[in-house]
Amino acid sequence: MPLFPCTRLQPLVAGAAVLLALAAPPALADDRTAYLLSIGPDLGSSGSRDPVFTAEVRSGRTVWAGLRPIYSFSVTEHGGVLGGVGLYGDYRLGAARITPNFSVALYQDGRGGFESRELLQFRTGIDVMFPVTTNVSVGVGYFHVSNAGITNRSADIDVVRLSVLWRY
């Protein structure tokens, strides 16, 4: 049994993301691309607590209903790899920027084999970023990776992370 009950947090994170998207005003127009680096432990069902390193590119270009493209790439300490493409929202709440996101991702677990039943995954998350300068922000976030029950083989990754974001 994992020490951190992430399965209980998933509905809360999804609900918070929806409420923020509905209630918070959109962030001021900022069409600059942002680059994010983060690290955090995997608190998912494996109980491994392996660090997960993530790099993201967040486009400043709005594509639909205020949503923007996000491209992510994550690696684990044991060679697991996750690459995703999706959409994110950008909302202000006081000085904070809140960015719920969703991606379709491809996943390989790093155990030396390639299991096609776990290839397709979905990544949902939320980040809260606080500005340090006009171009740099730091923050905390959470993301969950699973295959939404398509098969019985799911990545089941839950990451609570610390992030640094640069806008150019």
General description of the model:
With 168 residues, the protein is mainly beta. The protein has one helix spanning 6-23, and strands at 34-41, 51-58, 68-76, 81-88, 91-93, 96-108, 120-131, 136-146, 157-167. It has a single domain (6-167), classed as Porin (Beta Barrel). It has an eight-stranded antiparallel beta barrel. The longest helix has 18 residues, at 6-23.
Supply database-style keywords.
168 residues, mainly beta, Porin, eight-stranded antiparallel β-barrel, 49% strand, disordered N terminus
Rg value: 16 Å
Mean pLDDT: 82
> What is the level 1 CATH name?
Mainly Beta
H/E element order: HEEEEEEEEE
How would you describe the shape? globular
Domain unit count:
1
CATH topology: Porin
Sum this structure up briefly.
InterPro entries: Lipid-A_deacylase-rel (IPR018550). The chain has 168 residues and is mostly beta strands.
Topology:
Elements: H1 6-23, E1 34-41, E2 51-58, E3 68-76, E4 81-88, E5 91-93, E6 96-108, E7 120-131, E8 136-146, E9 157-167
Antiparallel strand pairs: 1-2, 1-9, 2-3, 3-4, 4-6, 5-6, 6-7, 7-8, 8-9
InterPro entries: Lipid-A_deacylase-rel
Protein name: Acyloxyacyl hydrolase
Keywords: Signal
